[in-house]
Amino acid sequence: IQQGLAKQWSQSNGSTALVDSFNTTSLTDNGTGDTTTTIANNMGNALYSVVVSTGNTASNPSNFGASSAPVDAGSHRSKSFNSADGSLADTGFKSKAVFGDLA
After folding, report:
1. pTM of the predicted model, to two decimals?
2. Distance between CA atoms of 84 and 43, rounded to whole angstroms?
3. How far apart are CA 103 and CA 93, in angstroms?
4. How does pLDDT run along the chain (103 residues), one tens digit per residue?
């Protein structure tokens, strides 16, 4: 697949209900605001970039932030939090995209 294109992406509502995705096997709810995404076709290694956005609704994203990090070549973990107090929070939607090299 061409360099610079997303190799995996997903959009979910709530914690683990996939709305749409590409190269995504499943989402696992690890607790409030904490989700692991399993990639269908592994990345070449754990040195890839994950971009995450989150909010209550697309028209009202509210006061939330998100962070994510690769766990291994086949999954990454993301957390959404209330940016006012830093507490983990389940949000109305979470969108993720992965950039890097496939195995």
Report:
1. 0.88
2. 34
3. 29
4. 677 899 999 999 876 789 999 999 999 999 999 999 999 999 999 999 999 988 876 566 677 888 888 889 999 999 998 888 889 988 888 899 999 999 8
